Every structure is written in C-alpha cells, then in structure tokens.
Amino acid sequence: MTEPTARTVQITRPAITDQHGVIESHHLPEAHEYAPTQAFRAQTNVHGEIYAQAADFEAFWAEQARTLAWRRPFTRVLDWRPPHAEWFSDGELNACENALDRHVAAGLGDRVAIHWEGEPGDTRAVTYGELLDTVKRLANVLEGLGIRAGDRVAIHMPMIPETVAAMLACARIGAVHSVVFGGFSAESLRARIDDAGARLVITADGGFRKGRVSPLKPTVDRALALHPDRPSSVEHVLVVRRGRNEIDWVEGRDLWWHEEVPFASPMHEAPALPAEHPLFILYTSGTTGRPKGVLHTTGGYLAQAAFTHRTVFDLKPDTDVYWCTADVGWITGHTYLAYAPLVNAATQVMYEGTPDTPDWSRWWRIVERYGVTILYTAPTAIRAAMKVGRQVPQGHDLSSLRVLGSVGEPINPEAWLWYREIIGGGRAPIVDTWWQTETGAIMASPLPGVTTLKPGSAQRPVPGVSLAVVDDSGRPVPAGEGGLLVADRPWPSMLRGVWDDEQRYRDTYWSVFGDRYFAGDGARLDEDGDLWLLGRVDDVMNVSGHRLSTAEIESALVAHHAVAEAAVVGAPDPDTGQAVVAFVVLKRNQHLVELQDAPAELRAHVAATIGAIARPKAVHVVPDLPKTRSGKIIRRVLAALASGAEVGDLTTVSDPSVIDTIRGIIAADG
Ligand code: 6R9
To answer: Where is the Acetyl-coenzyme A synthetase N-terminal domain (predicted)?
Structure first.
C-alpha cells in the first residue's frame, strides 16, 4: 500500500434544504453531548462496569459465547496464530438451531420472528414456529439436491422471508451461503458464483422495487449462460415465486420453491458442526478489480453478533420491535437481520422495497404500524429523509422508538441531530456503529444506557474489542491527530480468510502492521479517547454506505470498446456521502460513440457491468489524465478536482497543463 495517509478525507457536512428550501439544520439545537436519561439508565441491559468486566477479553468472550446453545461445550477459547484465529474451536453447535429450534423448544414458537411487508403493501407475520417449519423442509430439499456440509450455495433474492429461510437452511446443513445482492448484474453474479464454486442458486422470479417488478431469475439465467466455453458449477436453480414476472425455464435444472418446499418432510435434525465450520462467504469490494470473498465461521461470529445486538441496541426480546433497514445482500443484513435478531429471539420488521414507494412516508408508516422500538439504518437514508423535510415523519406517531442506530459511513452531525430530534423525538439515544464486512459484527459504538453521546463519533470499542489509531509505522498517534485504525488483538467475529485466496488475506489486512488488523479506515481519537472515523484511506469508495472499488469500476470502463483509459474517484456528495466520478480518455478514431453521448453510454455500461449502485454520477471525457513521469495515474489530483478542492503538490505530475484542461471540462460539464 502506498501513501496511506496522503488522501485527504473529511466528514461531509452538507447543508440540506427541504422541499421548501429551508435549511433543515438551522432548526436544530446546537450539537452538544447527550448523557443517557435517568429513565433509560434505570432499565438498560448493561452498565459501565461491563468495560472492566471485559478486561480479560478471552474470559469475557467465553462468557458471551456460553449464551449460545452448544452441542459440545468448548474448552479452548482462542487460538491465535497470526493472522489466523480460531475461537471456541473444540466446541460444536448449529447456527440454525441457535436462531430457531431452541426458541421453539423454549415455548416461543408463536412469537413473531418477522413482520414482513412487501412493497405493494402485502404483509405476513412469520412466527418462530413457522420459520422453523419452512427451514426444516427446505433443508430436506437442499439435501435431496445433493447439497452437503461445506458446499456453496448462492442466494440472489429480494427482501422476503424466504431469503432468511434460505440462509438458515444452508447454515442448518452446514452449506456455505454466498448472498449476492439483488442489484448486481449477471456478470457480477457469475464472477461470485465462479469464485465460490456454487452448486445451487436460490433466487426468485423477481421482487418489488419502486413500484415495479425487478427481475432476478432472468439475471441468474444470463449469468449461467455467460462464458459458454466454461460452464458454471451450478447444478440447480431453486426459484421462489414473488414477482410473477415472466421467466424462462430450464427443465431439469430449475425448480419452483412452491412445488418442492411445502411437500418436503417437516422433520429435520440439525447436525452438530464445529465452531469453526464456515457459515458464509460475502463478497466485498477491495482495492483491486476483483471482489473478495470474506469468509465467516460459526461460533465466534454468532457470539459477537448476539452480544452486540443485545448491548448496543439494549434489546429486550420480549417487548422490542426491531427494524434493520439494510438489504440482506450486505453484511448489515446478514448480522443484524438474518442472524443476531433471531439468535436473540427478537421480533423484527423486514421491508421489501424502497423508502419512497409509494411516497416518502413509507418508513414512518411502518414504524407506526408495527410499533418499532429500535431502528437501525444508514446516514444516507437519514439525509434523504431530511431532504424531503421533517413534515413527512412528523405526520406519524414515532413515539415507540427508543433506540436509533446508524451504520455504513460517518454520520455528519447535522444528520445526527435531525435523526435525534425529528425521528427520535429528542429522546432516543443514537448508536453510531463502526464495523465492516470483515469484522462481522459491531466493533465500536456507544452503549445507549452508558455512554454520553457525541454527535458524529463512534466513541468506544465495544467491550471485548480493542482498537488503536496508529501512524504509518504503527506507533499510536497523539489525541486529535489523524491516523490509521487497527484492531490490535483478535475478536470472535473476525473474518477467517478471503475465500480461496490466502495471499490476498495476508496482503490486504496483515501486511501493513503484522499481527494487528488493518481496517483501511482513517480515524482519530479525541482528548476523551472517543473515536472519530475519517473515511477510507485506500481506493475504496463509500456510496450510500456501500463499498465500491475504484479499480473495479475502472476495469468496467476500459472494457468498453470506446475507452482507452479511465480513472475513478470518490467525490463528496451531500446525499450519498461519496459519489462515483469517472474520468475517461476515449480511443482515437472511434466512431461508435458520439462524444456528447459518451457519458450517458458509459454510465449505463458501468451499471450493466457491475450493477446500478456502481453507476457513476459523472463521467468526464478528457484528453489526458494526470500522471507521474513513470505513467501512474495520480488519482489524488483527480479527487481534488472532482471535489473542487486545492490540488496540492504537483511536482510529480509529468504534464501539469492537463490539470487546467480537466478543471475546464468539469466546469463545462456542470
Ligand atoms: C457494516 C458495513 C465498511 C466500511 C468501513 C468504513 C465505513 C461503516 C461506519 C463507517 C464511519 C461508521 N463505515 N460504518 N464509517 N462510521 N459508523 O458498513 O460494512 O459495507 O463492509 O463497509 O464502511 O469505511 O471500512 P461494509
């Protein structure tokens, strides 16, 4: 990694105006610190002592892990041979049994596990008993298809209860699921299927998004038909009927869920699996073009997921109604929708569609209808709601909300204050949770009944976790100074590797600081020791809380026949945190794309190649890119130009005149 701290990172502080042009933040009180109220403190799950109790972190995590149901209790806690950790490794358990069977056995079969709402307005209340019944039948279907422990299953689904059932059925039989976000293209899906060698794909005909059916099975069909010279590893495709859109059918390969699952036996014994048995692979963008398959295993992952969910959200499973708005295609949807709430026997809300369908009051109607008490969402969603204006949420009774969570990117203080005042009624504590696909579960967050909140800070490592902010050579930096965030000892839900790529695991996370985990984020600690995240220090962008790789988008652009060279940077954006901005040099003498059409064509090309989330906000066609004398593109300069900032030191740029040219083009493009 070169120049880890050279990239300027800043917390975006957008001035957001509502529909009437009123600057939302001007109606808000000044940011100050917020101590927990007496009332909250009186009922909270954990107190300040928990930090001291976690001083012996191995004993602490062992105690947390014992809240799970073990078939064979562990005697070993941590086996740390950097960079490989094993937790509770001689224990045996079953993730699905922990999420479902044990609650039903304890008499909670009639408790609602999922209050589901489809985008068109259809609803279902799925109890723990019903979910277990479906999962057992599905487990039998999977086994009938020859899926065994250790086999990989790709899941490409909308936000419906069957998706959670599919993940849990895989976990039950020890198959490793790889959920691929429904918005990804056929090519992205195929790359993930190939990398994992998936034998089965579970999908739906389509799901509802923005008032229309968004097709999924057609993407699976296209993915499997790509590269006819190189057939995929997939033997079967299991299809849930949801969108009722027209789809093609491959006899012998494709199966309808509704023709298989209800007719399978409802009897299924969950096998005991080793604590380190692989649970899932989740692909995430890295600094190179190829996404990496982050691998998580069972015991440690569940222990930290369940613990953080109970303490960070102060969960009361008997009375709370919890809602995590993340899609199951991302890590937040894995840990805090599919696993932790179920392991903790919580009742949760799951919503299929977008927040603006049929209008922007959708989320607030859901909060009101189900009496949501804990809401976990992303700053980008809060900023979108803020832009629409406070009158929309204020038209609803949100008084049930008692804890608000934020995840995915730094939350700017204006959005924090708006979230607290307008959504939380000035009462509900906000927990700003920092973590990653790789960390598996929350690593830093306030505890709502303990911590005095500072808007914009993720504050403290959760009990049992240790983080530090260091300079390039690994020395702790003084309070107030920016540095690199590291985890200086292992934690239970840490990634166990990059699927099929040990070298990449070592290079990405451990080559910088040896036995300390390098997170790829910049951060600083303030005088009180509270943590402030400053954004990525590598070539990973964060758009609406989703990680995108500059290299992956660049390779999609240069794969277009008209493009000679491309450079992609993240520019600050008031709505999405960062926005993708691309600079392209077109091939000479190419007539296939008219110059004025090139930006639209290339934006659509990226969306088709990777997925709509990667579509650049702007594509600037430029005659040349700023480069070093040795020919390396200097993205730092482009990032500064895209954000209207000072370009800084230009001594390494071989032809500084291109800077003014590009600046002129950006201005002309508007
Ligand atoms: C859970 C998740 C991880 C990256 C991470 C960081 C950013 C996440 C944050 C945050 C500031 C927070 N990030 N939470 N930055 N404050 N509370 O988002 O995982 O998709 O892997 O993204 O997101 O940059 O490195 P993932």
So the answer is: 55-99
